[in-house]
Amino acid sequence: MDDFNPNTTIGALEGGIIVTNLLFGTFTMQVHIYYRKFPHDYWPLKTLVAVVWLLELAHTLCIVHGLFVMTISYHGQIIGIPKSLIASFIFSGIAGPIVQAFFITRVAKCFDKPYLAILCWTLTFFHLLSNVLMSVGSFTTQTVFLFEARWQWVVMTGLIDEACIDLLTAMSLCYFLVKSRRHSTHKKTIRLLDRLIAMTIPTGLITSLMAISNVICFLTMPDNLVWMALMICQVNLFSNSMLASLNGRSMLRHDQERDTTVPGNSLSNSLIFDRNSVELTTRINLGSFLTSEVSDAESASNPMAST
Predict the structure, then answer these.
(1) What is the mean pLDDT of residues 83-111?
(2) pLDDT of residue 79
(3) CATH number at residue 166
(4) Number of domains in the chain
(5) In this predicted structure, what is the pLDDT of residue 256?
(6) Is 292 part of a structural domain of the chain?
(7) Which of 27, 67, 113, 284 has the largest CB neighbor count within 10 A?
C-alpha cells in the first residue's frame, strides 16, 4: 500500500472498536434483563444466551488488546495482524452463525416451511466454514492488506453469505406474518401479529443493512479498513437483536394476559387463519415468541392448540 492513511485504517478500527464496546455494554444489560424477566425459560435457551455472552466478552477483550498492539506496539502502523485480533475473528465467527441459527430456528418453528429453514441452515454452515478459513488465513498472513488480497474470495463469500441469510430470515418472517394478518378476521390476532411485525422489522432491517453495507465497503474501498470495522461491530448487532427479540416477549405476554379473558380461548400457541370459507387454512406456531411459562400454561388449558 503506497499511501498509508491512518484515518481510514487505524482510525476506522478505533471507531469500530469503540462502537463494539458500547454495543457489548448494551448486550450485557439486555442479558441481565433477560435472566431477571424470564427465569423459567427452557434451559437450552438460557444456556444459548450465556454462551453468546461469553463469546461476545472474549471478542471484546481480544479486539481491545488488538487495538492496543496496533496503536502502541506497532506505533500506529499496519505492519502485522495481532494474534488477539485474529482470535476475536474466531469468537465472532462462532457467535454470528449461532445467532443466525437462532433466528432460522424461530422461523422454522413459527411456520411450516422446512425448505426455507434447510436453505438458511445450509448458508449458515458455509458462513461458519468461511469464518474458519478466514481465521486460518489470518494466522498465515503477515499484514491485513496482504490478507485482504490473498483471501479476498473467502472474505467476499462470507460477507455475501451473511447478508443473504439476514435478508432471507427477516424478509421471510415479515412476509408470512403480513400474509397471515391479511387472512385474519380476529382483532386480537391482528393486534398480536402487528406487535410481531413491529418487533421483526427493526431488528431484521438493522442487521441486513449492516451486512449489505459491509459488502459494499469491501468492494468499493479495498485500500482501507472500514469493512473490517463494520465486521467487528456486526456480530454485536446480531447479539443485541437476538436479546431484543427475547426480551420483547414481555410485551407479547402483556397483550396475551390482557386479551385472553375467556377460559380455554388461547391465541398464542397456535393461530388458525381462514384463507377462504372452504377448508384451506394456515397454521402458525407462535410459541417461540412467547415466554415458556405462558406457552406451557396455555398448552395445558387448550390441548388442541399444539396439535
Answers:
(1) 84
(2) 65
(3) 1.20.1070
(4) 2
(5) 57
(6) yes
(7) 27
**Which of 167, 170, 165, 163 has the alpha carbon at shortest distance from 197?**
170
Q: Are residue 229 and residue 274 in the same domain, yes or no? A: no
Q: Clarify whether residues 272 and 235 are in a common domain.
A: no
Length of the chain, please? 307
In the chain, the percentage of residues whose pLDDT exceeds 90 is 13
Residues 6 or more apart whose CB falls under 8 angstroms from that of 210 comprise 230, 233, 234, 237
3-state secondary structure of 111: coil
% of the chain at pLDDT higher than 70: 72
**Other Cβ atoms within 10 Å of 196 Cβ, number:** 23
Query: Looking at residue 259, what is its pLDDT?
Result: 55
φ, ψ (nearest 5 deg) of residue 154: -70, -45
CA separation, residue 112 to residues 15, 67, 130, 227 (Å): 42, 46, 29, 37
Asked if 204 and 174 count as a contact pair (C-beta separation under 8 A), the reply is: yes
C-alpha to C-alpha distances, 134 to 25, 140, 207, 217, 231, nearest whole angstrom: 27, 10, 21, 18, 13
